[in-house]
Amino acid sequence: WFSQRCDRILILFDAHKLDVSDEMKRVIEVLKNSDNVRVVLNKADQVNSQQLMRVYGALMWSLGKVFQRPEVLRVYIGSFWDEPYKNTENVPLFQREREDLLNDLRSLPRNSTLRKINELVKRTRYSKVHAYICNHLRNQFGLFYKQSKQEKLLKSMLGEFKTVSKQHGLAPGDFPDVNRFRSSLERFEIWKFPKLYAGQMTTLENVLSKEIPALMKILPMVEKQKAQAIQDEGSEEVVAGSNPFGASAGLSSAQEPWAITGPMKLKYDNIFNEQKLTSGGKLTGPNAKPFMLKSCLPAEHLGLIWELSDMDKDGCLDDEEFATCVYLIEALKSGAMKEPPAQLPLTLIPPSKRSLVQTAKNEDFV
Length: 366
Fold this sequence. Notes:
Blueprint: E1 9-14, H1 22-31, E2 37-42, H2 49-67, E3 75-77, H3 91-106, H4 108-138, H5 146-155, H6 157-168, H7 178-185, H8 198-234, H9 262-273, E4 283-284, H10 285-293, H11 299-309, E5 316-317, H12 319-334, H13 354-365
Parallel strand pairs: 1-2, 2-3
Antiparallel strand pairs: 4-5
Helix pairs in contact: 4-6, 4-8, 9-12, 11-12
């Protein structure tokens, strides 16, 4: 139970102690089907390169006997403590392995989110199969001889699984273990199960075909916002002795607030996620065209809005560029603007793109 809910499980071995005890073997047997297990070969600096090669081979041989699966476990080699290395000939290897391990641990928040989404998808598919099985079994009963009919159905459960799979196009891998399902079903009177209605299955289908894909589209933008927040936090500079009320106390281009507020950005993000995006989470011109044409603005205005919004000139709009695009469209429709500006004012450029736009202006000037 605990291992299935862990994002990462680390098994540590010392270079001079590779034996697998009986207690460790029982633990590994529980984990042998888990894909979140990593192995750390610690204190590898206590042996030289030739001995390390032998130690690594012995460790993989011991693990292969216990795990018994075709995939090779990822083993991180190093000496994970603050003391100086005893043998320095493998220091570059240890440093690379340490960095790989840290990168693996840093990736856990994203992998944890994906794992939870995958678990949700798996449970939804299992629920769908379970509902179809129970409804199929319930429909096999007539008015008489219900108990004998149930006994017959329990004996032929594997055949009933195949029938349900064929009728509804369900993958056999999504079906439960037939013996376990049969033993659980013996405690119930199948003919008393509630009837399954079509609308109930439509809800499950919407979760799998619409809501889960929409959730997956949001993930790249969330990660981008987190990375940008970390970058913005790290780029803040404090000038010692500067007077906050002096003549140079005006807002810099990076500090100038964005005209698109948080609630507006949230509204524009919802519209953005409804569009047909690329695998990188961007909106191409052909896919943006139908949405932009709904504004009924002149084509020359829409063309200029696209040019202004595509700030990195990659032919696509990300979520921030799309927000600027929609803002300009709404401003023209409401009459706040008579026509699109010749160039974007600073307040309409996202803070994350102001240096990019400024660089492009400098290149045009040169």
